[in-house]
Amino acid sequence: TYQRNLRMKTSKQSILDEIPGIGKEKAKKILQKYGSIENIKAADTDDLSALIGEKEAHALLKKITLENNQS
Q1: Residue 64 contacts residue 38 (beta carbons within 8 Å)
Q2: Would you call 7 exposed, middle or buried from its count of C-beta atoms within 10 A (0-12, 13-18, 19+)?
Q3: What is the pLDDT of residues 42-64, one digit of tens each?
């Protein structure tokens, strides 16, 4: 069970973990509201800013856009 728990922790990491200012609580709020990265991309910037803050919303959208362009 130790190895299974270890694998589960690493598999739960997402792009949200890489953004300064977005911790576990904000990431949880984002995922509860939007459900996926695709839905976050389609989200209204003002709506996302109201949920997590303007600075974090812009950083998140920038990171998602960069990741999308590199793929």
Answers
A1: no
A2: exposed
A3: 999 999 999 999 999 999 999 98
